Amino acid sequence: MSGPASDRDTETRSVREGRAETVPVPGAAEAGPVSHAIFRVARLHRMLAGHLLRRVGLHPGQELVMMQLWGAGPQRQADLVRLLDSDAATMTRTVRRLERAGFVRRCPCATDKRASLIEATPAGHALRGEVERLWRELEERTLGPLTGDQRAAALELLARLEDNLTHSAEPSA
């Protein structure tokens, strides 16, 4: 059954099962309730991350580039693409925006004259403590009152889901 009655039934079932669901699973998505839940959680998580990161002048994803630069030092853009599992066009836009904001700069690569390295500027390094604090806040808001064991179980389950998706995306799949 589909339509409003089916959506109400799904929402009622969710409340009965102890979940306060803000978005009912549409009838067309009933075959993939976990996928629907992942989509909703990822969307909300990204929205909250965006809200928090705006405080320091970053957009979601830019902090990951900065974290990579803080941890490993200057990187070729191609290496950032690989390390962050991005695509070249997205990384180009991200680096360009970070450059305009004054958080990164390009400098010549000593070993490859065709390449340039992306490095954090002093302003970019100054963001580190605040970004780490915002990520702790994001983590706490995401996990709420979960116990240490529940947090570990959630992390393990997410790792298994990521592994499943990685394997299903392989060319032989």
Set out the fold topology.
Layout: H1 4-16, H2 33-54, H3 62-72, E1 75-76, H4 77-83, H5 88-101, E2 104-108, E3 116-120, H6 122-126, H7 128-143, H8 148-168
Antiparallel strand pairs: 1-3, 2-3
Helix pairs in contact: 2-7, 4-5
Shape descriptor reads: globular
Q: Tell me the number of strands.
A: 3
Structural class: mainly alpha
Arrangement of strands in the largest sheet: 1-3-2
**Discrete helix count:** 8
Q: Main beta sheet, described?
A: 3 strands, antiparallel
Q: Give the ordered list of helices and strands.
A: HHHEHHEEHHH
Low-confidence stretches: 1-16
Report the portion of residues in β strands.
Answer: 5-15%
| Helical content class | 55-70%
Distance between the termini: 33 Å
Q: What is the alpha-carbon Rg in Å?
A: 20 Å
Average residue-wise pLDDT: 88
Q: Can you put this structure into words, describing what you see?
A:
The chain is globular, with a radius of gyration of 20 Å. The protein is mainly alpha-helical and 173 residues long. Helix 2 packs antiparallel against helix 7 and helix 4 packs across helix 5. 14% of the residues are buried. The longest helix is centred in the first third of the chain and has 22 residues. Strand 2 and strand 3 form a beta hairpin. It has a three-stranded antiparallel beta sheet with strand order 1-3-2. 63% of the residues lie in helices and 7% in strands. The N terminus is likely disordered.
